[in-house]
Amino acid sequence: MHDLGNKKQKDKEETMSAKHNLIFLGPPGVGKGTIADLISSDTGLIHISTGEIFRNEIKNRTALGIKAEKYVTSGGLVPDNIVAELVCARLAKNDCDNGFIFDGFPRTLPQADIVEKVLSEMGRAVDLVISLEANEELLIQRLTARLTCKKCGINFNKLFAPPKNEGVCDKCGGELYQRVDDSLETALDRIEVYKKETAPLIDYYKKKELLASVSSEQKINKIVQEVMKVIS
Ligand SMILES: [Zn+2]
Fold first, then answer.
1. Among 19, 90, 107, 142, which one carries the catalytic annotation?
2. pTM of the prediction?
3. N or C: which end of the chain has fewer CB within 10 A?
């Protein structure tokens, strides 16, 4: 009995010491969203995707959603202050108390400063930044193989994360299609923007000793295993 009690206590301590507040960083096409989803179901950490927040706020016609929509529909990037407001509102919900995974945010150095400020006001901090890495050729292959659900907007990938049934969304049964902006030209553009605006975050978090690199040039289950290892 006694031993069992000790073991339980020990398990609990191990859970407590695990990393809870995570950022997934990486170029477009590296699989951040897919991996974050899988880690989220394994750990219960809440997956916070800025893309998904935008879609929800826009769908629900909130004041912030209406502001964000102007940028999204014109193909522009949503300004840092609006992104920050949306993310803060999401973080304040109770389900994030045990931890979260940011995917697609922060995207720039100013956004990283916002994250630090917002979290410290909540008495929290980023525990670990997972940098997912893959060579450019593979990124382009994956970016141009993306499939999007017409109904719920989630993404699949012909190469990386195919749907269970061809052409059909696993989540809602909606029809999958290839977005016009998933062309080679757009893929190259997105990678360039990433290099210029987001890649500096790798050094930023390295200096803070928060960075762990994981190769995305392997099977999904291997990537998930490696990420689980670095966060536990
Ligand atoms: Zn769907």
1. 107
2. 0.81
3. N
Centre of ligand 1 to C-alpha 52, Å, is 13
Give the neighbor-by-neighbor strand order of the sheet with 46-49: 46-49, 100-103, 21-25, 128-133, 211-215
Domains and CATH numbers, the chain: 19-135+197-226 (3.40.50.300)
Residue 128 DSSP one-character state? E
Whether residue 72 contacts residue 153, with contact meaning beta carbons closer than 8 Å, is answered with no
**Ligand 1 mean position to 54 CA, how many Å?**
16
Residue 169 CA to ligand 1 center (angstroms) comes to: 5
As to burial, measured by CB atoms within 10 angstroms (0-12 exposed, 13-18 middle, 19+ buried), residue 192 is exposed
For 135-185, the pLDDT digits (tens) are 999 999 999 998 999 998 888 989 888 999 999 999 999 999 988 777 888
The SS3 call for residue 85 is: helix
Q: Which of 65-69, 76-80, 154-158, 200-204 has the lowest mean pLDDT?
A: 76-80
Cβ neighbours around 209 below 10 Å, total: 6
For this structure, is 55 an active site residue?
no
User: Is 190 one of the annotated active-site residues of the chain?
Assistant: yes
Is 146 a residue of the active site? yes
